[in-house]
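The step that takes the researchers longest sounds almost clerical: writing a folded protein down as plain text. The outcome of that step, for a single protein, is printed below.
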Amino acid sequence: HLAFTSPDPSPGGFSGLSLAPYGLTLRASAGSKVPWDEARAEEAWTRMRLRHYAGDGRSLDERSWDYFLKDYAMARSWMGMEEVSHATALASAPENRGKNGARVRELYQKGLSHFVWAEFWDKDNAQYPLAIGRVFYGLGDDRRGMKWAQKALQADPKNAEAFFLEGIMAYRSGDERSAEASLGQALALNPRYTQAAQALQYLRQHPV
């Protein structure tokens, strides 16, 4: 039987009425072994949140449905960030370089599925296409990564992080002119963007 814990107060959890992904638990009968079923857990979470937004009624009005979807999109995004953070740490650790490639890709792909879901239901939030772009950057797919960075800029034309991501992928793809323009724009939007300043300096010292 699926059971819910109370809302998770930890930094990685939700706040208020929302339930953290890690607040979902699978309670097995005494003496039995029931494997974790992520699909069933997600379904149970969804039903619980729908009941919350519907209140005493049996159906949701349009505004409540929109709130629910954006709430759930945020939950999926947080789950995706956990996967991507793990993948990044695994790939960047000195002792793991050249190792665990399959595991890193698996984690990136799992994170990607969450971000794609979130972006589909909340297209006004630039952070979701930006997160998808970062995953593709991590996977080495600059063509798709730049496409999603540009989608983030459509949602938020002044997003310095999206310009930065676009710039470093353009540089890695050999397009020095576009890279310099994007990194320069990131720095113009945020003069304290240290990473963008360092990347721009590196580009000028190491032309493609």
In short: Confidence is low (pLDDT under 50) at residues 1-32.
